[in-house]
Amino acid sequence: MSIKKRGDVWHIDIQAPDGSRVRRSTGTTDKRKALEYHDKLKAELWEIAKLNKKPQRLFEEAVILFLKDSEHQARFDYKQAHAEYFLKIFSGRTLSSITGEELTNSIPELHLKTKKPIANGTKNRYRSTILRVFSLSHKMGWIDAVPYIPRCGEPKVRVKWITKEKASILIQNLKLNWMKDVCFFALSTGARMSEIFTLTWHNVDFVNRIATVTNENAKSGKARALLLNNDAIELLRKLRFKNNCEYVFSRSTNKRVYDIDRRDFKRACTLSGIENFHFHDLRHTWASWHVQAGTPLYTLKNLGGWETLEMVNKYAHLNADHMLGFANNVTFTAQKPFNGTLSKASNG
């Protein structure tokens, strides 16, 4: 029997029936439990070799699979943090032994650092991470089914936008010049904050009037073209030789910008008489202006880089002009003049 202690934890070294070796930590300092783990694993290896039993996969293996799958996607740092959180709970467990109830109960209720209650939207992001872990495992044939985890209810989609006049006043009230540029670009292109601050000059094509959002910086994980209108082109030409930074938006010190100056933005909103307004609402504003100008929703979907048409339907109510032409397709007075009085319905 090959079981050795390394530090305080017991480790095993087993030769499987097919000649391969399995070396791993038992995750325990209790020798009795380590021996039980050793014997159970050895029996499973025999059943796999002799009875064609499906091998049991550890939760850690599924997490590694998940991280490899998402390493080139947007917000990889968030996914790493989620993976570390779940590893603390399920490390050492086999995938098949983890139930949907356990996964549901593992979704955090409090922020890991501040210990304040977290919103349902944040809980759903944890849910998406752990579901993806098990979904990939299912695709690999490691488990027979993906456990069910109920989704937390979220408030209805919030669409906040401002008029062009208000937007102009907002930009004028910003104190920092680089913040004026960032907000102007957001209103001109509908770009997300992460797309703006990761944009490099290498990915700006002045000839074809396109800025490329690379797959590692796109929310969907897929590269997309950010079309540049006249306002955006004029701004970029002004900034092109302003500094030596490889990133389009930088401070006067040629240092890259990672986030907006929230104090400046909040102060400008207050001075402009704009309440309950966030930076992402500039994207909502850009989309709202497009719909009001008659841009078809499908075209807007592609311009804004949304994954589905459903995501842009929230702007549809801002312009019903495209439907007015169909309003008279069905009328009950079309066959004869309407004298303003409906006849009484006949009895029987």
TrEMBL record:
The keyword Transcription regulation does not apply. Residues 157-328 form the Tyr recombinase domain. One of its GO terms (biological process) is DNA recombination. It comes from the Bacteria. Keywords: DNA integration, DNA recombination. GO terms for molecular function: DNA binding. InterPro entries: DNA_brk_join_enz, Integrase-like_cat_sf, Integrase_catalytic, Tyrosine_recombinase_XerCD. This is Site-specific integrase. It comes from Gilliamella apicola. The lineage of its organism: Bacteria, Pseudomonadati, Pseudomonadota, Gammaproteobacteria, Orbales.
